[in-house]
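Q: Given only this backbone (174 positions), what sequence would you predict?
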């Protein structure tokens, strides 16, 4: 058991134990998650939401033209992002991965950084392939390409910029 010392009638934090208000204890008060975990959770929720919306007629225009995979799918999420059943399933799986990996600091950070890298690679892939060829199996269009770029930059940035410090107490709480 750690003992605290009193100096002139004031409480002094025991050595080696982070103070709850210190920057090294980067958690949100309501959830007990680190900011990295909260970001991974939020990104996961967004991917789940758009994965579901990809299967909703009206939100996805030309819904009757949705294909299992490939560039022949005519379905357009929000009227601009080309989607297929495979594309929507990938978003759903990515969302579930984000929620699962948000449980710990290191997994959440890996999700954001790894996911950011994946989306930047997907952006580059979209720029070099012929959109009308069999290599466009996901399918993706120009709007998807630039969305993938933005997702990659944001996810990578969140994973790298958000506070990296965490305490053993914050990890034990999960």
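A: Predicted residues:
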């Amino acid at each position: 058991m750690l003992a605290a010392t009193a100096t002139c009638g004031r409480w002094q934090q025991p050595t080696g134990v982070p103070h709850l208000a210190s920057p090294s204890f980067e958690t949100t008060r309501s959830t007990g998650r680190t900011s990295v975990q909260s970001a991974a959770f939020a990104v996961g929720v967004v991917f789940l939401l758009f994965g579901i919306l990809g299967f909703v007629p009206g939100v996805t225009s030309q819904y009757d033209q949705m294909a299992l995979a490939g560039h022949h799918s005519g379905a357009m999420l929000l009227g601009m992002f080309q989607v297929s059943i495979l594309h929507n399933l990938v978003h759903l799986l990515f969302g579930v991965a984000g929620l699962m990996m948000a449980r710990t600091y290191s997994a959440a950070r890996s999700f954001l950084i790894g996911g950011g890298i994946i989306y930047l690679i997907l952006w580059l892939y979209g720029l070099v392939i012929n959109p009308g060829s069999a290599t466009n199996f996901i399918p993706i269009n120009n709007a998807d390409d630039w969305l993938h770029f933005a997702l990659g930059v944001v996810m990578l940035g969140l994973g790298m910029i958000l506070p990296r410090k965490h305490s053993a107490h914050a990890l034990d709480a999960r």
